[in-house]
């Protein structure tokens, strides 16, 4: 069956896996051991990985901090500001209603700790308005957190304009770049921000490792503190033994992305072009959720009118792994909060699926399976 759920997790690149196996086999040790060569070698791997991440993002390696993934990075970026907020009296956070739960739930949890938050809805296009965010800025605004690309819709947010606007004011800007890192490479290199998060597994690295970027202003890091107690790893920002093979795999994935992102985009675009052509020919009534002018090449959120996404996913799961991009458990079905925030009707949300792919998606196989999926949709339409 064809895997078309890359936004949930992308398959590991075989070169990344080979790098990791080599590390597991031949580079044992703790990167913080200072008394033997094994420790030294592990440290070299970690520091090289840090350079590869920095190279991809166009920043200094001293601004790269390894974590267990975007969820942890997002938590540190927000919770880690508590002490500074108490000292400075700045305790207002602005974010959006289409963020991943790792941002939304963390931000909401800060209300209990005396923070004030504003959560901005997107436009029906799926994009958040820079003006609406800037309008909410107050004297005590500490942080604005906006994702670069939404995981459910693939819609690209105006982070470059936002960075410029917020840069003029004394406000921290955090970007959740989990879905764009390694894809919108130039955009991220151009963007102005103070903090950035991503997970390696979305750019074909291993699961369980990610990065929090803390940009320096002069020599100064943003005023975040660790949210766990422990050792002094990662400058105390993220205590705990550094998982050398995971970090090495993350570095390798970033190195590959930096070399190949332009070519990758040509390949993912070809899949999208095929998807649109097959869809047009199908005779089905459809629409896209989100303004496709601002959509990633490797994602669509598609509403097939009259075709329940639940029924479609069930009847096609033998040959297609797709999702409806929402929390769906066996007990309860909740329509996507992202699509709801875009003012899409519940009926339309129920008929919406998310398809996401990558540079290694086989075009012919895609055409074959996507055509089959649409044939099934025709059977199910009511
Ligand atoms: N942010 C975004 C935008 C995401 O898409 C995801 C993963 N779905 C995360 C954060 C969390 O990543 P992880 O589960 O790897 O911590």
UniProtKB/TrEMBL annotation:
**Which reaction equations make up its catalytic activity?**
(sulfur carrier)-H + L-cysteine = (sulfur carrier)-SH + L-alanine
Q: Which SUPFAM superfamilies match?
A: PLP-dependent transferases
Q: Which Gene3D superfamilies match?
A: 1.10.260.50, Aspartate Aminotransferase, domain 1 (3.90.1150.10), Type I PLP-dependent aspartate aminotransferase-like (Major domain) (3.40.640.10)
Key words, A-Z: Aminotransferase, Iron, Iron-sulfur, Metal-binding, Pyridoxal phosphate, Transferase
Organism expressing this protein natively: Hornefia butyriciproducens
Q: Which cofactor does it need?
A: pyridoxal 5'-phosphate
Q: Which residues form the Aminotransferase class V domain?
A: 2-362
Name this protein carries in UniProt: Aminotransferase class V-fold PLP-dependent enzyme
Q: Source organism's superkingdom?
A: Bacteria
Into which family does the record put it?
Answer: Belongs to the class-V pyridoxal-phosphate-dependent aminotransferase family. NifS/IscS subfamily.
Tell me, what's a Pfam family for it?
Aminotran_5
UniProt cross-references to InterPro entries, sorted A to Z: Aminotrans_V_dom, Cysteine_dSase, PyrdxlP-dep_Trfase, PyrdxlP-dep_Trfase_major, PyrdxlP-dep_Trfase_small
Entry GO MF terms: cysteine desulfurase activity; iron-sulfur cluster binding; metal ion binding; transaminase activity
């Amino acid at each position: 069956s064809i895997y078309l759920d890359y936004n949930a997790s992308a398959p590991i690149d075989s070169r990344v896996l080979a790098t990791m196996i080599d590390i597991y086999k031949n580079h044992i040790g703790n990167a913080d051991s200072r008394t033997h060569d094994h420790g030294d070698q592990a440290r070299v791997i970690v520091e090289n990985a840090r350079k590869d991440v920095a190279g991809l993002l166009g920043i200094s390696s001293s601004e790269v901090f390894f974590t267990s993934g975007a969820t942890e990075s997002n938590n540190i970026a927000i919770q880690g500001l508590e002490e500074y907020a108490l000292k400075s009296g700045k305790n207002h956070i602005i974010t959006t209603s289409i963020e991943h739960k790792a941002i939304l739930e963390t931000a909401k949890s800060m209300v209990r700790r005396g923070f004030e938050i504003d959560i901005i809805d997107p436009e029906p296009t799926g994009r958040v308005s820079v003006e609406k965010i800037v309008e909410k800025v107050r004297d005590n605004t500490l942080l604005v957190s906006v994702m670069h690309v939404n995981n459910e819709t693939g819609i690209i947010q105006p982070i470059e304009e936002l960075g410029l606007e917020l840069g003029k004011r004394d406000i921290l800007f955090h970007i959740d770049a989990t879905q764009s890192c390694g894809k919108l490479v130039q955009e991220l290199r151009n963007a102005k921000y103070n903090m950035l998060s991503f997970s390696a597994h979305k750019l074909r690295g291993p699961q369980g490792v990610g990065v929090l970027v803390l940009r320096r202003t002069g020599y100064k890091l943003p005023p975040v503190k660790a949210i766990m107690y422990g050792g002094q790893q990662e400058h105390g920002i993220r205590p705990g033994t550094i998982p050398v093979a995971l970090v090495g795999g993350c570095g390798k994935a970033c190195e590959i992305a930096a070399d190949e992102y332009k070519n990758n985009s040509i390949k993912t675009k070809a899949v999208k072009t095929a998807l649109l052509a097959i869809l047009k020919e199908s005779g089905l009534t459809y629409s896209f959720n989100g303004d496709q002018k601002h959509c990633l090449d490797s994602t669509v959120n598609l509403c097939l009118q009259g075709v329940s996404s639940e029924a479609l996913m069930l009847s096609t799961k033998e040959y297609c792994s797709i999702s409806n991009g929402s929390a769906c458990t066996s007990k309860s079905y909740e329509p996507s909060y992202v699509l709801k925030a875009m003012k899409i009707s519940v009926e339309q949300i129920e008929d919406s699926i998310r398809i996401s792919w990558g540079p290694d998606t086989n075009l012919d196989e895609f055409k074959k399976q996507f055509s089959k999926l649409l044939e099934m949709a025709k059977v199910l339409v009511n």
